[in-house]
Amino acid sequence: MAFAGVLNDAEVKAALDGCAAADSFDYKKFFKASGLAAKTADDVKNAFKIIDQDNSGFIEEDELKLFLQNFSAGARALTDKETKAFLSAGDSDGDGKIGIDGEGSLWSMVHFPTDLSV
């Protein structure tokens, strides 16, 4: 697991079990259930670096689709609907990416979970 030592295995398993069915993923619930919402800014930045598979400095749609697999290799991919909703919640400027800092960043999504697309 990419988050070993940072997140509690039991919490991560519970979070993954909570969104095992297609179209059941809710990023706010997942961040809370996995324990990520209680982590420091440095921990969230480290999580960002794991999720940012191509090291571009942004999390793009294709990386979000595989978001759950960063927590467990056997986890499902997000559906297109879930992926688009997740991206929409964090993409404050409409560029199709989630940044590491600022409004619409992974940090703000984890610690201030509001849907910015509304």
TrEMBL record:
GO terms assigned for molecular function: calcium ion binding
This protein's UniProt keywords: Calcium, Metal-binding, Muscle protein, Repeat
Binding, Ca(2+) 2: D91, D93, D95, K97
GO cellular-component term (any): cytoplasm
Pfam families with a match to the protein in the record: EF-hand_7 (PF13499)
Residues binding Ca(2+) 1, per UniProt: D52, D54, S56, F58, E63
Location of the EF-hand domain: 39-74
Function: In muscle, parvalbumin is thought to be involved in relaxation after contraction. It binds two calcium ions.
Family of the protein in this entry: Belongs to the parvalbumin family.
Protein's UniProt name: Parvalbumin
Organism: Haplochromis burtoni (Burton's mouthbrooder)
